[in-house]
């Protein structure tokens, strides 16, 4: 069977002992788990004395599937666990957390090793890429929870909506997940300057239209867009185009933009669970319902919009 390993790291401003103690208690996991956050009503059960070997937890959800995790070994700077997934497909994996004390912060590395059934050999690279993104989301939330005591991220399913025909001006960009925020911020500044110079009225919430993604590098190709009442001629690199009317499936995210991956993950998993067929291009839309200029990051509202086929 084809084996694979996923390894992701972050830095956390807490002691090694504090981090290991927190991670070894599975009752802390719903606060930062990249899967449990997608289905807060998921059935979760704990067994054993938390923090001690042999303790664990199990989950049984409609969207995130079912499985269990058991704490199997520990030493001064690592924890080992066994993961058993029952749904959406059966698999087993070994999970380890390495926590290394640095000068001022700890380096936390989350490692998973597993195998795929032989008939899914072609899924190996895709599986690794998706798990890497899940682990990155989880480590970001773990860092926030341990350093600030909270994770400002609440994704929820809104459901099916109709998207009307919409004209927009835009700038095209490419960026990886860590670069997206700064690139879009610069694009929106240029677009707002253009609309002010031309006395244009922005007719709806601003949005980002995602065209494609390279899953191996997490680089996106996208358009940063401001809706306008009617089309007009623009000079490159500006683009004027329209979003055709369509039926959509919508997830809403409340919270800081760096945690937006939680809403995208819920959108993909929930649409598959509900057997909603969505377009591959565009991949989807981020629609910004308010602005960090007006509200705190924790109160930002963003819709993830998937266009139905």
Beta strand %:
35-45%
- Unreliable sequence segments: none
Structural class of the secondary structure composition?
alpha+beta
> How would you write the strand order of the largest sheet?
8-13-15-14-10-11-9-12
Instruction: Indicate the multimeric state.
Output: single chain
- Main sheet specs: 8 strands, antiparallel
Number of helices: 4
Description:
The protein has 309 residues and is an alpha+beta fold. Helices cover 21% and strands 41% of the residues. It is built from four helices and 15 strands. It has helices spanning 16-23, 124-148, 180-197, 261-273; strands spanning 3-12, 43-47, 56-60, 66-75, 78-87, 91-101, 106-115, 153-163, 166-176, 207-214, 219-228, 239-243, 246-255, 284-288, 301-307. Strands 8-13-15-14-10-11-9-12 form an eight-stranded antiparallel β-sheet. Strands 1-7-6-5-4-3-2 form a seven-stranded antiparallel β-sheet. Strand 4 and strand 5 form a beta hairpin. It starts with a strand and ends with a strand. The model has no long low-confidence stretch (mean pLDDT 95).
Q: What attributes characterize this protein structure?
A:
309 residues; alpha+beta; 41% strand; globular
């Amino acid at each position: 069977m084809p084996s694979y390993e996923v390894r992701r790291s972050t830095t956390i401003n807490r002691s090694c002992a504090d981090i290991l103690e927190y991670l070894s208690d599975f009752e802390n996991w719903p606060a930062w788990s990249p899967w449990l956050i997608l289905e807060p009503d998921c059935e979760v059960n704990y067994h054993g004395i938390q923090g001690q070997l042999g303790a664990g937890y199990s989950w049984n959800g409609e969207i995130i599937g079912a499985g269990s995790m058991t704490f199997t070994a520990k030493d001064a700077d690592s924890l080992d666990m066994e993961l058993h997934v029952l749904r959406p497909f059966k698999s087993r994996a070994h999970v380890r957390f390495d926590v290394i004390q640095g000068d001022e912060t700890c380096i936390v590395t989350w490692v998973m090793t597993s195998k795929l059934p032989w008939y899914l050999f072609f899924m190996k690279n895709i599986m690794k890429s998706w798990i890497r993104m899940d682990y990155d989301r989880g480590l970001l939330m773990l860092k926030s929870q341990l350093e600030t005591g909270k994770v400002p991220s609440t994704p929820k399913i809104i459901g099916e909506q109709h998207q009307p025909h919409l004209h927009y001006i835009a700038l095209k960009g490419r960026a990886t997940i860590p670069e997206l925020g700064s690139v879009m911020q610069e694009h929106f500044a240029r677009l707002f300057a253009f609309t002010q110079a031309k006395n244009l009225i922005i007719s709806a919430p601003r949005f980002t239209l995602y065209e494609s993604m390279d899953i191996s590098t997490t680089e996106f190709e996208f358009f940063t867009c401001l809706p306008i009442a009617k089309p007009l001629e623009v000079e490159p690199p500006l683009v004027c185009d329209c979003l055709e009317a369509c039926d959509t499936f919508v997830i809403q995210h409340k919270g800081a933009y760096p945690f937006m991956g939680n809403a995208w993950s819920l959108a993909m998993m929930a649409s598959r669970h509900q057997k909603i067929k969505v377009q591959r291009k565009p991949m989807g839309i981020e629609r910004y319902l308010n602005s960090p200029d007006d509200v705190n990051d924790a109160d930002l509202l963003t819709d993830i919009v998937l266009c139905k086929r």
